[in-house]
């Protein structure tokens, strides 16, 4: 029941909005703050925020996941290229411990679940239903196959913060039709190349326009042209991946092979700003776990970010509490 997890109403109107300023593509920017005076969470856990038309509630316009956490578990951990599947090759392994605080009579082998995500990607989620061992109030997770991850590679980057000049990673830009188009420098596969360090933001993006006082209103919609110079894959599709795609793998971020040019292309509408991205593959069926092995390679030196979510299921309850959240880098 809604009253079990929300104080107030489960639905509210979005009344805070403003119109774009000095943009070629006109839009309305809507804003909602949560929690607010009419809607506050009562319990920790996983939440889903959906936006829909008031006249058509079945038509979801957008949605996003977020977490509400409490501080009833302290987590410590490390990541290493020395794994149970090989030393300093293509893998990274997590070792960690979780100490419960203020959770009485919890059975660590039945009531506690731990999830680990690489760079916040839902597709990478690994769930542990029991620890390797328990030392007092501390749960130890070490040398577990579920905590060995493909290392991947550093995210690629580009910036398009002004329509007056090409930013980092941009080859050219010009106005076409009704908006600006941005052509990125041609990318190539990195699977066979040596690791190159680059400090990235683990797949995130930031909406920004160079001269705008408020980039939410002044950052224009642009069409970004991606190009990946790779031979055509017969049994897999290539997708653009990053926070900007929200863990979706469909026609909006699936690349198309240009037989005449001998490379993959994709046009994607984005707001002006700074972006991290990478290329991943999925079987043609669209089922499976996205992999960057063929496109980016797996380099043990990669600076990944691992999210650790600790859940507690109180006996007799209908949901899990998120009692701890920790980031391992």
List the helices and strands and how they pair.
Elements: E1 6-8, E2 16-19, E3 28-31, E4 39-41, E5 45-53, E6 56-68, E7 73-80, E8 82-83, E9 86-87, E10 91-100, E11 112-118, E12 126-128, E13 133-135, E14 138-141, E15 148-150, E16 156-160, E17 170-176, E18 179-184, E19 187-188, E20 205-207, H1 215-218, E21 221-229, E22 236-241, E23 256-258, E24 263-271, E25 273-283, E26 306-312, E27 321-328
Polypeptide structure, described:
- The chain has three domains: 2-68, no CATH class; 73-151 and 304-328, Immunoglobulin-like (Sandwich), CATH 2.60.40.150; 156-283, Immunoglobulin-like (Sandwich), CATH 2.60.40.
- It is built from one helix and 27 strands.
- It has one helix at residues 215-218; strands at 6-8, 16-19, 28-31, 39-41, 45-53, 56-68, 73-80, 82-83, 86-87, 91-100, 112-118, 126-128, 133-135, 138-141, 148-150, 156-160, 170-176, 179-184, 187-188, 205-207, 221-229, 236-241, 256-258, 263-271, 273-283, 306-312, 321-328.
- The strands form eight sheets. Strands 17, 18, 19, 21, 23 and 24 form a six-stranded mixed beta sheet that branches. Strands 7, 10, 13, 14 and 15 form a five-stranded antiparallel beta sheet that branches. It has a four-stranded antiparallel beta sheet with strand order 12-11-26-27, with no helix packed on it.
- The mean pLDDT is 96.
Summarize it.
The protein is built from one helix and 27 strands. It has one helix at residues 215-218; strands at 6-8, 16-19, 28-31, 39-41, 45-53, 56-68, 73-80, 82-83, 86-87, 91-100, 112-118, 126-128, 133-135, 138-141, 148-150, 156-160, 170-176, 179-184, 187-188, 205-207, 221-229, 236-241, 256-258, 263-271, 273-283, 306-312, 321-328. It is globular.
């Amino acid at each position: 029941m809604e009253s079990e997890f929300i104080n107030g109403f489960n639905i509210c109107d979005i009344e805070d909005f403003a119109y774009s300023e000095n943009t070629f593509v006109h839009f309305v920017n809507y804003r909602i703050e949560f929690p607010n005076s009419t809607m506050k969470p009562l319990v920790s856990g996983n939440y889903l925020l959906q936006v829909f038309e008031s006249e058509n509630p079945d038509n979801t316009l957008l949605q996003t996941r977020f977490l509400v956490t409490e501080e009833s578990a302290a987590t410590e951990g490390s990541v290493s290229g020395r794994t149970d599947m090989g030393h300093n090759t293509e893998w990274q392994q997590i070792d960690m411990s979780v100490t419960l605080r203020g959770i009485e009579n919890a059975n660590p082998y039945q009531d506690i679940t731990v999830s680990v995500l690489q760079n916040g990607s839902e597709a990478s989620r690994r769930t542990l239903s029991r620890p390797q061992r328990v030392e007092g109030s501390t749960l130890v997770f070490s040398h577990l196959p579920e905590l060995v991850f493909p290392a991947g590679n550093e995210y690629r980057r580009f910036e398009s913060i002004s329509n007056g000049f090409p930013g980092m990673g941009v080859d050219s830009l010009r106005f076409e039709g009704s908006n600006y188009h941005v052509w990125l420098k041609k990318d190539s596969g990195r699977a066979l190349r040596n690791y190159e360090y680059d400090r990235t933001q683990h797949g995130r993006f930031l909406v920004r326009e160079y001269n705008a006082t408020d980039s939410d209103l002044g950052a224009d919609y642009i069409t970004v042209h991606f190009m990946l110079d790779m031979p055509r894959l017969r049994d897999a599709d290539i997708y653009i991946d990053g926070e900007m795609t929200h863990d979706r793998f469909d026609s909006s971020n699936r690349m198309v092979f240009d037989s005449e040019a001998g490379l993959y292309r994709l046009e994607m509408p984005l707001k002006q700003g700074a972006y991290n991205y990478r290329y991943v593959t999925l079987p043609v069926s669209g089922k499976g776990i996205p992999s960057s092995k063929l496109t980016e390679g797996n380099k043990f030196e990669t600076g990944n970010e691992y999210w650790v979510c600790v859940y507690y299921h109180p006996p007799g309850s209908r949901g899990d509490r998120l009692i701890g959240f920790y980031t391992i880098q």
